[in-house]
Amino acid sequence: MPAGTSAPHRVTVLGSFTLHVHHAPVPLGVDARRVVAYLAVHPRPQRRAALAVDLWPGVPVAAAMRLLDDAVLAVDVPGLLVTDADGALSLGPDVEVDLAGAMALLRTLPDVPAAEDPDLALLAADILPGWTAAWLVVERERFRQLRLHATEERSLRLTAAARYDEAVALAQQAVHAAPSRESARRALIEAHLAQGNIAAAVAEYDEYQELLRSSVGAAPAFALDALMPPSPAWPVMRARSVMPRSAVQLPGLRSVRASGSTRRLVAGGSVPGTFR
């Protein structure tokens, strides 16, 4: 396709399914939509028998093949679907797929300097999150892990480049997508600390620990501390050995005991000592 021209067909599967032909939305029936979505997620030509079995599991192969043929006929969008010499089915060469763009971004993002601002919107959503088809589960989780890792790594690079607001925003996106993911919390806490926002870092730490306690019943009290690199901004991170949270003296924070034996750092109250 010549540079500067847009694809006549565009399929999106990130966040939701859409089909546009020359920028106009085109509705599809349920089965036709499933066929197009499958081919968008699996870009290589698909043998019809295997495709039919994946799309209609539990249905006899002959019946599934008939359903596939009907669904392909129902698409009725010239150039959207093509068949190779062996009869395998795929999307046409001029079909633009947002997932393909996201995968290309994932490959190039590590080489993009922190001073540049690539469009990361393609990394903000999972593949068809509302769909429950078995054929989708593995690909959706694979892409989810790739996009979260890339988002976290980009946040860490932005933190190192002193672009703290952007680093915090990206890390928050990863935390929102996977609240129990330690690497996402780490990226966010590191960005807060580098920005000098110690209260936000402590709040994030406490929120994560509480999430682990409520979800698994017990959490290692210092698991996240151990993952962090030494930081002069927060004494508990600088000391690799286990130390009581109550021993950390930060301006404007005081230690209180909640229900049970857990201590938390909260805003307010005087703290002895002066920090320079």
UniProtKB/TrEMBL annotation:
Signal peptide: none annotated. It comes from the Bacteria. InterPro entries: AfsR-DnrI-RedD_regulator, BTAD, TPR-like_helical_dom_sf, WH-like_DNA-bd_sf. Residues 97-232 form the Bacterial transcriptional activator domain. Keywords: Transcription, Transcription regulation. The lineage of its organism: Bacteria, Bacillati, Actinomycetota, Actinomycetes, Pseudonocardiales. It comes from Pseudonocardia broussonetiae. The keyword Repeat does not apply. Gene3D superfamilies: Tetratricopeptide repeat domain, Winged helix-like DNA-binding domain superfamily/Winged helix DNA-binding domain. The keyword Transcription regulation applies. GO terms for molecular function: DNA binding. This is SARP family transcriptional regulator. One of its GO terms (biological process) is regulation of DNA-templated transcription.
